[in-house]
Amino acid sequence: RKTMKSLRFISAEAFVSNAEFARRSLGAVAHDLFPLLFKASYLLEQGEVIHDLVENWPLFDFNMGKLLGATLDYQEDLSHRTCSVCLESCLTGLRDYVLNQSSPYMKKLKVVDLTGIKDVEVQFCKCKKTMGRWARTQLLSKLCSELLVYLQQAQCNPGTFEISINVLIDLFVTERNYELVVQALLKKCSCPLKICCVAFRSDNLTLQKFFYIIKLTDPSLLRKLEIVHNVHLEMEHLEMLFSSIHFPELMSLTLPARTFNVRRFTATDEQMLSNIGEKMGEMTQLTELSMSFSILTGRIQKLLSPLKTPLKMLDVSNCSLNHADMAYLANSFHANHLEALDLSGHDIPELYPSTFFKLLSHCSSVLRSLTLEDCNIQDTHVNMLILGLSPCQKLQEFKFIGNPLSSQALKHLFTFLCELPMLKNVEFPVPRDCYPVGITYPIDDASLCRFDHQKYERVAEELNLILLQANREDVKASTPLFGSYDAAVQETNNELGAYLIKSFKETLEKFTTSFNKMS
């Protein structure tokens, strides 16, 4: 469906479509037209025009989310287009804004906000080349370092050194771009472009490097902290982190797998867990918490009860929760505020069916996303599930991959899902009857793809037909066998793959050495 454009926007497109003419004429353009021309240039991927617009930006702020979002002139939101041509032109234009001494406009720019850019799976830009969060981190750090070197070597206008622009960005740091980012952060005070880290994601970093760079980011500004995958953070390191650094603005926290393991807890560990809970309680803005693949049996209350602000997002997938944990969640003050909940990897029907449905009823008025993957939900549980989901009228996303449901049960469930007015995304399992008889759940990776693909395609068509007949073409239904799309993982999978191979090789070498010694 084409989005309507105002005559102003159509005129702006016509103006920027001739790049040479547009660049030559910018000096005569009114200040308040720059945002309009920027969005038109971004839509048409006019890199040179984008560069010059930013280089001569006449306003106090430059907010990518607002500039590319829905406007009266053009309702379509372009903030999910991470077009490499457009973003590189944008950032180099920002560098040249500092260096350009002949611009006809007085330099007013104080704040650049790059945090509104959204990384998504499907790109609509013509060049089909994206610039993800990691690459944006890399390029901005590189430009800041180069800018500082140039200013130190060249004869610049004294006014250039008085320019001070806060650049708000979501940083993504791995081993590969670590040194470059560290150098940019260390020289922040001297550089006219000052990196202000609002969200920080680290992967494939040693603990020593992580602790060093997190202090450089100015943690007092951080709203989101993601420590994932190959950062080997355990409970004692987390306590050290929270004891040495304060995060007053932190709203969202993601911890790596195996941060907690209560099976090997000592009295000291219990105290450590209490300390972590208390420190999280001091983070009065914290509303999103993800700690999947930790073992937290019987300790959820100890960790979450000190929180003074109710959680809106909770991911405790594969955390070995017991009945006491679920009872706490169902009766806690968090329950009425949960907009996103992930309880994957727990045998809900067997362990705590009534407590789970109590939790679901408490959060039903606000719940937007529910993930119940590998939860042993079978055909006999579908009617109860429908009953529990019926009040969830704001549900936008429901993921239940890995459950042993038959084709018939899925059709029954889909017929109900059509009635949820806000639903947009469903991730459903390969039907049990598409797998060989005797398949056991959860299905191991080796057997995951060994199903009747033709039969699956027929069932998927029937499920989509149910949506179509109910006029719910707006609902996307899919079966991502190896998990949902993750833009950050997708962007750095080569580096992570190399790291895993290296780790495997080192482990093999240690094993061989030990074996030879024994021999």
TrEMBL record:
The lineage of its organism: Eukaryota, Metazoa, Chordata, Craniata, Vertebrata. Keywords: Leucine-rich repeat, Repeat. Belongs to the PRAME family. LRRC14 subfamily. Signal peptide: none annotated. InterPro entries: LRR_dom_sf, LRRC14/PRAME. This is Leucine-rich repeat-containing protein 14B. GO terms for cellular component: cytoplasm.
